[in-house]
Amino acid sequence: MQAQYVAPYLKRILNRRIQVMSKQLKDTLNLPRTQFPMRGDLPKREPERLARWEAEDLYHAVQEKNKDGNTFILHDGPPYANGNIHMGHALNKLLKDIILRYKSMRGYRTPYVPGWDCHGLPIEQQILKQIGEKIHDMDPIELRNMCADYANNFIDIQREQFKRLGILGEWETPYKTLNHSYEVGILRCLEELCKRGLIEKGHKAVHWDPVFRTALAEAEIEYQEHTSPSVYVAFELNHVENYEFLAPVKGKRVQIVIWTTTPWTLPANMGVSLHPEFDYVALVDGDNAYIVAKELAEGFQKACHLEDATVGATFKATGLDRGTCKHPIFPEKDSLIMLGEHVTLEAGTGCVHTAPGHGADDFIIGKAYGLAVFVPVDDKGCYTSDYPEMEGTFVFDANDKIVKKLVDEGKILAVKPIKHEYPHSWRSKKPIIFRATEQWFMKLEEGGVRSKSLDAIDNDVQWIPKWGHDRIRSMVERRPEWCISRQRSWGVPIPSVKSKKTGQSLLLPEVIDAFIEFVDKEGTDAWFTRELTEMLPASFVGPNGETAADLEKESDILDVWFDSGASHIACVEMDKRLTDPPVDLYLEGSDQHRGWFQAALLLGIGARDRAPFKSVLTHGFVLDEKGYAMSKSMGNVVSPLDMIAKYGSDILRLWVNSIDFTNDMGISDNIMQNIARAYRDVRNTLRFQLGNLYDFDYSKDAVPFSKLEALDAWALHKLAELVEDVTAAYENYEFHRAYNMTTQFCTVTLSALYHDILKDRLYTYGADWKERRSAQTVIYHIFDSLTRLMAPVLAFTCDEARAYLAGDCDFGDKCVHLEDWPIAPEEWKSETAEEIDKLLNKVRPMVNEKLEALRQEKVIGKSIDAALTISSDANDALLNLMLKYEKDLPELFIVSSVSLVALDSEQELTIEAKHAEGERCPRSLRWVPTLQESEYGPVSPRCARALANL
Description:
By secondary structure, the chain is an alpha/beta fold. The chain has 30 helices and 32 strands. The chain is elongated, with a radius of gyration of 39 Å.
């Protein structure tokens, strides 16, 4: 062979030999082995696990496991059964599931009975969309059947959607407000309130929805921007000569000026209210004198272009009390002048147009002055024949017409469109009107319901977050009463009757009790299908001697907030799976301070003299990525169903875990991608641990704590801190803190430090060497604790991971949710950990800085190519600490060797890094002074010993 071909030929032979040798050496390494998939493929794999849980009846297995434990009751607030679940539903139910899974792992019995709100306007609204205006003329039973079918259909749909989120509960036997047994509970609550004298019927001004033609509660009102005509209207004072304090303006046409943004209520005007303590002035302009509050005079003059008007008289309004002025609409009528504390100086003139039929304050002062309640508006929001000129006109359409009429008559001094916050129905999304009607009310002042509720808010209930206390307290404090009646067909009828003799409405406990007997068997449809004479016993006698034949049924239903608010009686008290109130926790959105929380509290105090809950936890609203509310019109709705289909439930659950849910929170595909990356980090951490436990049997291979390697003792200490801190976070419902701690533990403590450092020991040491078993022992503890710590959140993944630990397959014999919550033994905490912490956090960063400089200079490739010399004063505490752990330093710093030099002179700690000398071991990649022969070729002495034991 020619010389020029010899060298390349020998090189190829040598390379082939090295490749063969490397392949053989690689086969001797303890490389990770696991079938646990790198990719979760959650949308596909989670349904398989759900089916397994259902087949094994996991929910009841959890309850059975803890049957002798203390009970923790989280009472479910019922969502409306009127559509697919949205992101708010998902957030709420997932928070509940996370809490209950945690509590069950702590040994509590945690029965979870989900519920649905089925009655009332939200369901009727959906039927209205289907059949249109004929809904108002339908037979009540036909309408009720349609509503029940609609609600039950969506209960079935939502049930499957909630189950897909991985939520455990009594899904086949939930509570529904349309169930006969639940309706009995509602009526029992109403009956008790009646027995205590807390229910009365009154003719009062209430929020009225002209679209759905029903009264609304405060909780059903939302405020939106609305444009109204603001007008200054002059009411001419009668008998001016009777008022001596007006002598300075004698001969003038004296007019009291009101300001209103609801001109449509002027036909219902019955008076003008002034404040008894304010100073009022009569502003003279030509032949007219205008009465307004002194402090508002300047603004009035500017708005009405009366800057040249002068003060003719100053006086208190008390002299005008019970005087009269001319009605602005009806010339044959007068308006009464009254004194009221509700008058303010915030805007207007200090003279308030008063229509008792269209305002709450107006109604109160009108009643005090004995005024009639005049309501010339029907349930559709149109004028009746009481205002012939506008009969049949919708009130908001009449605003401009009324303003024009008054301008033409010279009664309006100024008019200007104004944008302001105005109450709208949260169902029809249209402006409401205030309209006095006969309604049933729950009294809050009489009987002490309000004062007892405020006491319970202050002393008996924990509000989380704390601002929830002030929010609900202020709402209850200023609530005058609760209008509990609605003018609808779909709901629980108020079993009130009217006397044919007197016309009096009666709500009698004995009538309620008789109705309940039929409801228990037939449901509340019985009110519409049965005659009153069938329900009442022959011996029945009313308060005025009425028999059943002397009475007729009324047709109002209960407010749906009464339905849901009574759940602590209709569900909790009556369901043997639960325990009597107060329950441990109510958890809903922050809007429920004015809704379910408040309704439940008032009914609990009113009917049972106690709050129905011990703690109330609230969450914020789910917004889009930019902080805007989601709406179909904006095209920014994020569906939980879409997120599950793309990412899987566990990633949605992890998002819930990551947020401070007590505030409003954003979600978007970008946000979910970030959560998905965090999930991958966690999954890769678990996969690394599983891969390195393939040959580890804890019962045979575990190393006692006292014999663990220093680094392993440090890692176990860190795990103990994690367990305690995450547990504290769960106890305080601070799930985002638990998320931050666990993800940081996985990515920093484990992946960037512990796992990275361990690879050499795990892969190259003898399989059963004590040092390797030490690492595996701690990895086992970390995996065991971590999968249990994260099980309430990553419900699917943690169960899957533990199955792979047990049998390297998808499903194991014992579900993670049947395990107990991890507890860190005291022995896991050690001084060794604190010392290793100093080496990792103080020295290692300095070492890495030196190594990075060598890499940049191309002196080394990986850190293992380096050798370190660390020198310092012999008295240096850090140097002495390193001397204590000298044998561990190469592993901690991932270098081939570390030399420590103690100097006599005072010198700060210095680190010198260079390329390691000697020869590189082809198996461990470490540099050693000399290699040693083995059957696999030259290797380091340590690898030679490991190979000899194969």
